[in-house]
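Hi there, hope your week has been kind to you so far. It would help a lot if you went through both lines with me. No rush at all, and the record is pasted right below:

***
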Amino acid sequence: MESLSILTLFFIFLLTLLFLSSLWRQQKRSHVLPPGPTPVPLLGTPNYLYRDGILRYYPEFHKKYGKMFTLWQMTDPVVVLCGYETVKDALINHTEQFSDRPLYPALDSYTKGFNFLSSNNHWRLFRRFILMTLRNVGLGKRSLEEKSLKEAELLVEAVSEMGAKSFNPTQLLSSAVTNAIGTILFGQRLDYKDQKLLDLISHIRKHSDNIFSAKQQICNMFPVLLKLPYLGQIIMKNSLCLVAYVREQLDFHKETLDLFAPPRDFIDHFLLKIKEEKGNKDSKFCDTSLIMFISSILAAGSDSTTATLKYCLAIIARFPHIQAKVQREIDDVTGSQRPPGMSDRARMPYTNAVIHELQRHLDLAPAGFYRSLTQDIAFRGYTLPKGTRILPYLSSVLFDPSQWETPDEFNPGHFLDEKGQFRAKPAFMVFSAGKRECLGVSLARMEIFLFFSALLQKFSLCPTTGAQMDMKSLRFNKRTIIQSWEICAIPRSSHTD
């Protein structure tokens, strides 16, 4: 009994020591960091660091603390950057210093470090290779655009089969987007009713959910848990089906690869690179890196583009006067005989502006992925130590009143000049910015423009679910809109030929 009391006292003493040590370290480090809400020793400010916390608290913190504020992930500070000028200064003007990532132990353990969130130098090597390979397989060229235009026509046919009835277009959009990416990666497209395509879409969604799940976040915070037997396999269970699908594609390509013929797709290019570096014992090109990066491309490209398209269609259905103006522009440029192509985009400034304004209001990623400083830096009045976690608050850029005339309203004029021509806005950071900008930005922009334009050319969209809301309410309900809202697609019977 006495030994139990001594043990209890020891643990109380140890916890007190840890508490005081954490409090002392936080107070010491706080002197060189931007202000922020007071952290709880050992725990930090955990309720502010996740999605719901970002939507709920960050606007208030932005007003209270200014362009930068500090939150705490347990005993590690996270500096949040707010507003266009601050985010631009960090991600573009000081792009190299803000280009690292913090450790994601759960993800790194599963992918062996081959992922776009990695803090090692692999990402530079693979980013260059992947961008070059995407261009080699047709990105930015007419050949890939023609395949995407064909996919857009098939999407229009699938929507036509709904017969002007209320339906949720998410599955059809996901099928079209996944096929567009699959054509690049695997050199194949699948019918929208093909069980293989439906399974792939399901695998991608489960993988994406798994990467951002609470169990992964807990393992990232307490990486010692990953040393427990089988835990790593358990937390990545929902990603294994996607890996198995990609491995099946890899095995097929290995069996059918023709060294004397032009590469068929992304996998062929990657396999040829593996063969090229076969004698290099330090090469990072291997089956594992191929599988992990293709899985990442599928997850990052399919879900985000599908969500963007669904939101665009659901919202434009609630603005019939804007929708009609887009349709008139499409009719004037292409008529009804062919869908709009990328070469038409310059002659469709209003359509392009509407798409950009829809994406701005969607605000799909309110905060970018964590960055990490590569060195100590004096930044906007503070001395930030090497390794400090940085969180770009992208919502504050997309709704910065210094950059947008009417930030809280839906106003395509934000992207039009006085002559009605499209104008790019540097504060349009929906794909983040700098050296860690979204890798598939060019592909996503092409798919969104081609699919959105093709659908509005053939259909007038009407809302069938969801109460009337202002734009702010729509934005805060975007997850429900993307997942479950339905629309009605009425064929346009008469427009300019």
In short: The chain has a mean pLDDT of 88. The chain is about 55% helix and 5% strand. The two ends are 92 Å apart (CA to CA). The beta strands are 68-73, 76-81, 166-167, 371-372, 377-379, 382-384, 389-392, 459-463, 487-491.
